[in-house]
Amino acid sequence: MELRPVTAASASAQTTRWHAILLAGDRPGGDPLAHAFGVASKSLVPLGGKPMLAHVLQTLLAHPQIGDVFVLAQDPELLFENPALSSFLADPRVRLETSGSGIASSIEGTLQRQWLDWPVLITTSDHVLLDKGTLDWFFDHSADCDVAVGMVDSHAFVADALETKRTWLRFRDVDVTGANLFALNSRSVFPALQYWRSLEANRKKPWRMAWKLGPTLLVSFLLRRLTLIEAFGAAGRKLGVEARPVRIPFARAGVDVDKLADHSLVESMLARQLQ
């Protein structure tokens, strides 16, 4: 399906207006955190008195550069039966999308069905600590490439005195963890999304991801020969896109809620914000 062409008028608007795709689905077999709290979906796990999804959706809708927000889940209507979420449906910018068999294919389908213009932000419903400052930083540093990926380095966690277990990607110059923020800036991302399908099962095993990108990259990764920028350049060339990491200087941007320990940490941080 052909996407709507970008006109000169829409190009200027894109500098200040983003579509957002909010990933709110569950992995096959259900989520352990959802089971622990007795809810139907991880997105409905309560934090600070409301579902995780409500925190992220509220942050996105409040940002002046974000327009439509597409909530992507296996059964999005079921999520919004929750009283803390149903009120969001009164906002015409909230759009519900049914996900497919995988994240990459679901994103690709949403881009094509909705004929979205660029840029497009992708984030997740467990990114509860997402705030305007983080979004501002990411938006300001994610242009002039096809794909930008939010990262937080270990120094930010030390500076903010935030102690939590993360999955670290180790490069010659820095150790980073993901920030669950992605910017898609051009239609060149479609081949990369197709390739992403083969990587999804290995997102917590970076060496397997590197192997799929080629043994040379794998060896370079294992020996920490590449800087972060060099690694993104090499991966981008394999995928046919210009890819760029965006190093976000706020440790909270690198905290998502995957485990009970994460839940306890974020619950305490939200409580301190209200004091």
TrEMBL record:
> Domain MobA-like NTP transferase: where?
35-197
- Pfam families recorded: NTP_transf_3 (PF12804)
Q: Which domain of life is it from?
A: Bacteria
> Has the keyword Amino-acid biosynthesis been applied to this entry?
no
Q: Which keywords label this protein?
A: Magnesium, Transferase
A GO term, aspect molecular function: transferase activity
Name of the protein in its database record: NTP transferase domain-containing protein
Q: Please give the organism.
A: Croceibacterium selenioxidans
